[in-house]
Amino acid sequence: MGKATFAHNKEQKNITVEKIYNAPINKLWHAWTNSQMLDQWWGPEPWKAITKSLDFSKNGYWHYYMAGPNGEKQWCWVDYLNIIPGKEFTGRDSFCKETGVIDKKLPSTTWHVKFENINNKTKMIVTLSFDSTDDMDKMIKMGFEQGFTMGLEQLDNLLKA
């Protein structure tokens, strides 16, 4: 629908992303919690998300990789920390090895994803919390905003289909 807004807060070491979708909460929830849906929109083109395993439950995890256009694979791991079904969830996102071992050289981020009903539309609020401002700066320099914007636009198109 509209463009996503990004607010950086260096003091709190977080980035808040907001976007309104012309779709009910249950469709957004499904898109964030179902591996077949995630694989269709997560990540910036020409990269594609490929899920190895997803257990969307408290203390569950998502193990996936981003497949690049030249055969690259960037493995990632999300630990689901808290889930309020249909409303919000929190997860810890990290880069990892194919085996799932976390790569400590790259930043990990805690994601809090919340959905609000606004006149039959859904406001999505994503707050990314970083361990340090250095980690926050690394993610920004890695192209987080551009990449996440592309993914959110792909989600918008998927919800319209």
TrEMBL record:
Reading the lineage from the top rank, the first entry is Bacteria
The UniProt transmembrane annotation reads: none
Q: InterPro entries, from UniProt?
A: ASHA1/2-like_C (IPR013538), START-like_dom_sf (IPR023393)
Q: Which Gene3D superfamilies match?
A: 3.30.530.20
Among CDD domains, the record links this protein to:
SRPBCC_CalC_Aha1-like
Domain Activator of Hsp90 ATPase homologue 1/2-like C-terminal, residue spans: 22-159
What family is this protein classified in?
A: Belongs to the AHA1 family.
| Name of the protein in question | Activator of Hsp90 ATPase homologue 1/2-like C-terminal domain-containing protein
